[in-house]
Amino acid sequence: MVIDDSSTIRRSAEIFLSQAGYQVVLAEDGFDALAKINDHHPALVFCDILMPRLDGYQTCALIKKSARFHATPVLMLSSKDGLFDRARGAMVGASAYLTKPFSKDSLLAAVREHATHEHDAGKS
Predict the structure, then answer these.
(1) Number of domains in the chain
(2) Ordered alpha helix ranges (H), the chain
(3) Which of 3, 42, 94, 105 is the most exposed place for a label (fewest CB within 10 A)?
(4) Cα–Cα distance for residue pair 34/84, rounded to 1 Å
(5) Each residue of 13-45: pLDDT tens digit?
């Protein structure tokens, strides 16, 4: 799942991940993501930090508080690469931190490193 209010970022991530054979669910913001996460059970969530209404930290914290999804890896996406942002991401349970703009290689490497393998069998 890719959560970002930028359609450009969502589209880039979708292309990179789809080409690599992953199913991709897109969400425009935290509320959109929380509505979709139950239906799709993503193996991994990429979450932008700066979003309207519900920011990435709040979205990540809500996913981690959920009994069903607390084990789902959440990777923060940000155009800022600050220590404070990384620390705050870690505090809300983020597994890793990716700086935008990301390359296809860095995105796929992050998926390989953090995606839960139990979902791989169900990937069509």
Answers:
(1) 1
(2) 7-19, 30-40, 56-65, 83-91, 104-114
(3) 105
(4) 25
(5) 999 999 999 999 999 999 999 999 999 999 999
